[in-house]
Amino acid sequence: MNDFSVEANGLTKYFGDYKAVDHVSLSVPAGSIYGVLGPNGAGKTTSLRMTLGIIDPDEGTSRLLGGHKPQSVRGRIGYLPEERGLYPGMKAREAIAFMGALRGLDWSEGRRRAATFMTELGLERVIDAKIRKMSKGMAQMVQLIGSIVHAPDLIVLDEPFSGLDPVNQERLETLVRREQARGATILFSTHVMAHAERLCDRIAIIARSARRFEGTVDEARALLPMQVRYTPRDAGDPAAVAATLPAGAERRGDAWHFAIEDGGVEPLLAQITASGHGVTGLSISRPALHDAFVHIVRQVDAGFDADAAEDAIEEASA
Amino acid sequence: MTPFIRNMFVVARRDFLAIVATPTFLLFLLAPLFMVGMVLAGGMGASQLADSARGKGRIVAVADPAQIEALRAADTRLRAAMPREPALLELRVASPAADPLAIAREKGRDTYAVMSGPLDAPRIVEREEGSGSGRYLALLAGEVRRAEAAGDLPPVTPRFESLASGGTSIAVQQSLGFGAVFVIFLLTLLLAGQTVSSLAEEKGNKVIEILAAAVPLESVFLGKLLGFLGVAVLFIAFWMALAFGGGLIAATQMDPAAIAAAGKAGKAATALAATPATGWPFFLGIGFIYFVMAFLLLGAVFLGVGAQAATVREIQMLSLPITIFQVGMFSLCAAAASAPDSGLARFAQIFPFSSPLAMAARAATDDSKAIHLLALGWQALWVALVVWISVRLFRSGVLGSGKSWRFWRRDRPA
């Protein structure tokens, strides 16, 4: 037994000539909540499918739960696919028990747990309702329960929050934390940063088919300099104020916005105190994960655009 | 129970319940009732037509008054020995007014032949040239002449003895074999074709990804086959029970004497008295097992082919080639059943998709039993092979996984 629930190395997948996933590696520590972030069409779902052995990678390997092949530990994995699907004619309780039974759970135990889970998640009214009678969000919650009903050691959720209302998103976050407390490892993909920021111990950012970042949320945020918002008491002469602030400071209303390096906090404070303009407001903060994400994705896109431009120039000169 | 088998049964159970617990299934179950009703109605109509026509047919002999009695006696004697009873004989006294052509054209009756003139050189007017009725009248004339020449002979009193257990004739066994082929073919035609659309549901509602993630696709395919087989067996059991129950009720309603009489005379009794070479219990048992095998084999092919189809329309288009394929297998096996021990029969028994039908026919004519074990093993191997290939094609084609099997396509640039 080692400390990683998921060890995927160099996963690569071609769809025809298109390289959908390019040497993506994921190492998910056991017992953690791990987010795979990326813009639409970046290759998140394909990466997860390869990780779980639903489709075979063209290159690379995936080992789960301590070096096992994905196919040999199916019973210990729970998976919510991106494309939600349930048999519309089945009742919620049966659908959950069916999904549990596929993973080796006893039918009657599955039915019992289904009722418990649904009651906890505020779905007790529809325990015996058919899936086709439910709203999309409800059906999604049912499917989510179905993918964790057998108490798996590894839970993989593909875009679990999309299509849920804020109340259900909140419930899902609680559920994810509770499963982690039970000892499960959770790997989920999303393009909504707020959830990742709140939940994830570590994240990987996939853009343009390849992994562009791996680390903690704080490490991702540290990629960008700290943002300062400063409002002087004495607004007198803007040019005089600007002279005391780092270059590139931008004035919006009364406040000045600018970025500083990690080591620049104390010198800045000293500078502001010494300038004599006074302070009515001052905030120094890390940018949100959202900004870091956009920053990384833009950089990747810019690189691709530059490549494309170079190609175009080469072609033109040839 | 290994996880593989358990997964298979989970899928089979879901499919079975999803099919059976719908109102449509009732329609499916009772559908043969419409067919039986139609056949009964059609049959009754046809037999009524035949009945109403039968009384009106006749053959006519115009003869001297002295010969009328001799003709009537000869007719009684000959009639009993004819395989198909000739039309009613009408005897008329010869008179100058009796013109055979006019008699043959009389309205209100079907007149097949009219005989007139002296019996040693009769004139026979036939409706159709060379008809049986005409030949019968000629035979009748000869019989009367012979009786006149020989005088009264004492009647022959034959003693009939039947071969009680002399074995069943080869022809009857062959027709039993053909019957087995036909029944298995009909059942698979009615029931196995459904499997072609069975994966369409999962592809439509995206459940396939849950299944593919949770269990090996082989157990999904086999489980689906098993679920459909369960439906088929339920269908057969329902109709068997209905037929058996109906037979019992009919038997209690009928007079035992009538049954005995019917049993003595009926053709059904001879068929029942016939035994297949392997004996009835073995024949019925192995017949059922071969039905299961035929169902699994054809079902696996259809499932695999249907899994490749992207739309409902494609599945509908596939139903024709599938039916033709089944009819082809039936024709092959029907030909094989009528010529056991021929090269064609050997081929039909070995070719995997006709093997269950052909081997069921063989059970009727050949009394060796061990060969069936071999055949079942061979067929099971093919079921596994077909499922294995179907899953590979499905994974690479539909799930977009693994190396492309479309080898004729240009390989991607490195």
Please, could you describe this protein's structure?
The complex is a heterodimer of chains A (318) and B (414). Chain A has 2 domains: 4-220, 3-Layer(aba) Sandwich (Rossmann fold); 225-285, Alpha-Beta Plaits (2-Layer Sandwich). Chain A is of the alpha/beta class and 318 residues long. Chain A has helices at residues 44-51, 92-102, 107-120, 136-148, 166-182, 193-199, 217-221, 238-244, 265-275, 289-317; strands at residues 4-15, 18-29, 33-37, 59-64, 77-80, 154-158, 185-190, 202-207, 210-215, 226-231, 250-252, 255-260, 281-285. Chain A contains 10 helices and 13 strands. The N and C termini of chain A lie far apart (57 Å). In chain A, strand 11 and strand 12 (255-260) form a beta hairpin. The model of chain A has no long low-confidence stretch (mean pLDDT 86). In chain A, the strands form 3 sheets. A 6-stranded mixed beta sheet of chain A has the order 5-6-7-3-8-9, with helices on both faces. A 4-stranded antiparallel beta sheet of chain A has the order 11-12-10-13, with no helix packed on it. A 3-stranded antiparallel beta sheet of chain A has the order 2-1-4, with helices on one face. By secondary structure, chain B is mainly α. Chain B has 2 domains: 57-150, D-Maltodextrin-Binding Protein, domain 2 (3-Layer(aba) Sandwich); 169-397, no CATH class. Chain B has 16 helices and 4 strands. Chain B has a 4-stranded mixed beta sheet. In chain B, helix 3 (65-81) links the parallel strand 1 and strand 2. The longest helix of chain B has 37 residues, at 217-253. Mean pLDDT of chain B is 80; it is low at 402-414. The interface between A and B is medium-sized, with 32 and 30 residues.
* Rg of chain A, nearest Å: 24 Å
Q: Any low-confidence stretches of chain B, pLDDT <50, length ≥5?
A: 402-414
Order of helices and strands of chain A: EEEHEEHHHEHEHEEHEHEEHEH
Structural class of chain A, please? Answer: alpha/beta
Helix content of chain A: 25-40%
> Alpha-carbon distance between the termini of chain A?
57 Å
